[in-house]
Amino acid sequence: MENSVLPYLEWEVLREPITIFKVDDRTELPKGQKKIMINRDEDYNLRATLYFKDSTIMSGHIPEVAGSFAEKFDIQGSYSDLVYYTLESCLIGNTKIHYIQEGQEVLDTANLHFKGLRMRYKNEKEGAHLVEWYLNGPKDYVFSRLTDRKLVRSFSRERFVSNENRIDSIEVSLESRSLPTDFIQIKVGDFQFLVAQVPSGIGPKWSSNIGIEYRKAWGRIPDMNEREKIEELCSFIFGRQLLPVGYTIYDQNENMVEGYAHDPWGKEARSYCSKHDQPPIRISDGARGKAEDIISQLLPKYYEKRELLRLNEALWNYWIARQMPPGTNLPILAAGVESIIDGWFNTKSQGVYMKKEEFESLLKEEIEAIKEKFEKKPHGDKIIANILKAYNFGIMERYRVFFEEINLPIDDHEWEAINERHKFVHGRIIFDETDWKRVIQHVNTFETLLHKILLKVLGYSGTFIDRSVLGWNDKQLS
To answer: Distance (Å, rounded) from C-alpha 98 to C-alpha 95?
Structure first.
């Protein structure tokens, strides 16, 4: 940890284990003396242990009957009337009864499962400054602005040979200072915010940790829905899914007002943080501040289009697909693209049909399989015609019309990747006979296609990283 850092200003509230010594009574908990210890495990997930003396049966246990559900409850507690705690949506897990040894008092224990920890500080002032904390942040090259941190300390020493006879006196001022390039500034509409790197030594070492910081003095603090949009777009541009772990609210004098801690999404944060970056635009080309410029440019359009085109659903599918094995993730990537297409058709599309010969050429194998299955059955010709008509408009036609309407040219290998998705959806893959290098290329192509679509509907017209071809070179979008 840097000597010039104040940890409570630079990272989330559960950076060190917390003990709640005063736990309020409620029917689900044992009566009498009890305390709760809370920490994070090696994947940065929340863990809590309840310590208690009264080993009577508690009613807040996880149910033992398969398929049943227990009522969750909140636990309240405090520390010296200075901090008030709430453990949200709790259930009691495994309980261990410890026997009291002679001369010693040993408390029984139970694991607590809970959604999040809220901490409210005894502070009469309103929040003026909010920071949301994330694992899996971007690498150093993203940041372009300088922070000057100073921590000044004083030391004095006086020696007396008698009560009034001072023989020696020393006063020394000590200053720790650091000057990292560790944040970017985004301005949008009537507010601005910072994406700031957390100093080294704070938070888990296996993650690049960041805070997204908002202040009333910078215009206003956006609401939760707006902050989710900011998180989503920043994740996309950084090429890394930001994993929120909580937030801290401060007053105008930087005293804590409220803190909240929760699990990172997916519960396997170390695995997520080990993945390589995959930004859609090259932000590591030495042009410091490029990520700042791109986010500032695209965020207003993302605000406008997010719900209409279901962009957040597309991105969720994208991040989930990145955690899956190659090939099996193609239908999930396709679901991301198709959520945008559905949003587009629901709000804007005029629509025309693909030419018959183009459709039959593109899906030759699938058409032959349909004909072979139904041509000898009664009314087979009609059945085949209806299937092909429905399949045409239901999948390939929607892709084709959408690409035409957003003016996004699609080449042959991108259509091949789209077609590969159908094989995995309909179980036409024989795993030990599949060319997996080719499948991986299709995955890279489909991911690039999703990048292109998102950038296009957000009004971007610069270069993007084309991962559909060897070399992963930059290519002009417009």
So the answer is: 10
Q: Are 455 and 286 in contact (CB under 8 A)?
A: no
209 backbone dihedrals φ, ψ, rounded to 5°: -100, 140
Residue 97, in any domain of the structure: yes
Residues 110 and 157 in one domain: no
Lowest mean pLDDT among 96-105, 341-350, 398-407, 412-421: 96-105
**Is the pLDDT confidence value at 367 over 60?**
yes
* Interatomic CA distance for residues 232 and 229, integer angstroms: 5
Q: What is the total count of domains within the chain?
A: 4
Query: What pLDDT, on the 0 to 100 scale, is given for residue 393?
Result: 55
Residues 170 and 186 in one domain: no
Give, in order, the Cα–Cα distances in Å from 94 to each of 40, 87, 442: 18, 18, 46
Classify each residue of 67-89 as buried b or exposed e, where b means 16 or more C-beta atoms within 10 Å of its C-beta: eeebeebebebbeeeebbbbbee
Question: Could you tell me if residue 294 is inside a domain?
Answer: no
Are residues 167 and 226 both part of a single domain? no
* Position 102 pLDDT exceeds 60: no
Distance CA 259, CA 121 (A): 8
More confident residue, 46 or 285: 46
